[in-house]
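Consortium newsletter contribution from the modelling node. Members have asked for a concrete example of what our holo predictions look like. Here is one, prepared for the nicotinamide-adenine-dinucleotide complex that several groups have been discussing at recent meetings.
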Amino acid sequence: MPSAHTAVVAGTPVDTRHWIGGHRVASAETFTDASPVTGAPLARLSRGTATEVDAAVTAAADAFPAWAATSRAERARLLHAIADGVERRLEELAAVETLDNGSLLRSHRRGVMPRVAHNFRFFADHPLSLGRDDLDTRGHTHHITWDPAGPCALITPWNAPLMLASWKVAPALAAGNTVVLKPAEWSPLTASLLADIAAAAGLPAGVLNVVQGYGNEAGAALAAHPGIRRVSFTGSVPTARSIATAAAAHLTPVSLELGGVSPLLVFADADPELAVRLAVEQYDNAGQVCLAATRLLVEESVAEDFLRRFTTRVAGLRLGDPRDEGTDIGPLIHPRQHGRVDGYVRRALAAGARAVVGGGPAGLPGGLHYRPTLLTEVAQDAEIVQEEVFGPVLTLQTFRTEEEAVRLANGTRYGLAATVATGDRERAERVSARLVAGTVWVNCFFVRDLRAPFGGSRLSGIGREGGDWSFDFFCDVKNTVTAPGGWRGHG
Ligand code: NAD
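And here is the predicted structure:
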């Protein structure tokens, strides 16, 4: 039965309070979360401050010794139970997330939410095989262990809220840590549902805590808290700087997964249809994807043909309500984000860029849809090339030689990902080796494996997530060196 602290979103009751130490906790102040799909307010949520953050870190610290001492197998059992809960409530999670952040319902149902469950299962099981063979130094044994580090702060963005939270919550908990999760203020609802799911799965009180609120209040207090042993953050570069500065006071290790202006290199020897498909995929999630290859770098001799095919494909994309099965591009998350994207495009046009596709708001009801846009005649040092727009806006530059392609690709301050379309295997190897990027995709895009590292170079981040890399970050890695013999008694 809905109470004063429940919002019913897409038919699902969502508790609007924090989740601290196994209890729902309300704040005196609230903030309003509105839907980019309907424009209507969805919920008034408790607005966390340093007080709630401190209570959550204390709860996480209290729960830590018992959770750290729990066997990996038992922790895995509980994380699988959370995955079961995610799968059971998949339709609800998908519907709530869509209303909350405007991403496509069909992606949430078929791709994103199943991956959330998969993330919990993968990271549940990974520690069971985590380990190295002992080393021997003149009879001395080096035994390496991954010890839980303590309470962790997990701070997440709005573009893939539950997916990115599960990327952090699952390995942190599997490693034996306790966590305080601070979801983004524009899309906080599925984090509250995750707290319900974890509680129903039997996760002990205080192991997972959720504090909602604004970044500069709850987020800043969490990153700066002396009781935190790790800060794992996904979001923008300016916020990363604040978080790293706050964490530096206690030398708390930080993992930073940030943005990018990744390139897609299209060589003349590439399959033209594949190259165009890869390019059009960059409009997924209305371009609000950190990995998006926003810079199309196309060999001059095929640029005209590429552009013709690209324009035809984009004309077939349908903008609309993200709940409709036929919609390809939904709204941007927030009027502020819409204004930001449009500002970038207007400044680029004023600076001489040409919009060969799109170039402005779509003028649909709600006012948050932006036309898929492709800008040409952009210089390498132009703002639109160098800065992350985080909307459905791509640029196209041409190159004549492989050397020039690599130079343009590497010519920004970012290095999250790069995609190469070519039919020449040797070229693929040569070019991939020279690209500055955490991930290079060759003739494919967005193929991910949780065993592989993921992260960025340069301004795109610090550290890698996935597989052992997640556990290297979330653990204190210890080497115990034991001398041979010398034991009392037998053996
Ligand atoms: P953001 O940096 O504005 O916010 C991210 C989170 O940080 C939110 O929870 C916010 O409340 C919090 N925050 C804001 N100020 C804070 C502060 N001073 N101290 C502590 N926390 C604070 O980012 P966003 O706009 O929500 O997300 C978009 C950005 O995220 C883009 O730059 C995108 O590229 C990046 N991103 C990166 C990845 C990746 O894996 N590399 C994935 C998704 C998004």
